[in-house]
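2,3-bisphosphoglycerate-dependent phosphoglycerate mutase
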Amino acid sequence: MERLLVLVRHGQSEWNKQNLFTGWRDPGLTELGVEEAVRGGRLLKERGLSFDIAFTSVLTRAQKTLDLILGEIDQEGLETLSDQALNERDYGDLAGLNKDDARAKWGEEQVHIWRRSYDVQPPGGESLRDTVARVLPYYIREIQPRVMRGERVIVSAHGNSLRALIMVLDGYTPETIPSLELGTGIPMVYRLNADTTVASREILED
């Protein structure tokens, strides 16, 4: 039985390009972001990968990335489930602020703690631990059972919601997961064992 799970972070967004904290705000993709998503779909197609169901967040950048990927692999209209459980980490009062401006206001060290600690919340927002606490139950309830039944699953989401999944799949700790960098539009292909552990992982890049 093939237990296939593909994770992909959305392509570059307008706010990524402008170096803004984004969180639950909803900017679209840049031209580069569109190209990244299309390239990710092409790489999946080159490996002959197709899917039975897709999952994504309720945010436009993740949904558009998924649409572009599905177009490349000739699976437009694939059944897709969207849920805010897969949304990016909520940056609260930082959302919409330029990261350099935030450093000028609160200091380099404080902003670094907000961005890269596991359990410190920015003002009005979520810590990575909070994000994990909503993503993992959704994964265990909705996504993992389908993979274990042999359905081929793709998840288009965000840097921090995907960190939550990778933390479990690849055995990262609260100390190591915040520093994990995920490229935009780059598919990560997991195949799972019968006990839900990872049999193999491949990162698809040109």
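thats it. The chain has one domain: 4-203. The beta strands are 4-9, 53-56, 80-82, 153-157, 188-192, 198-203. bye
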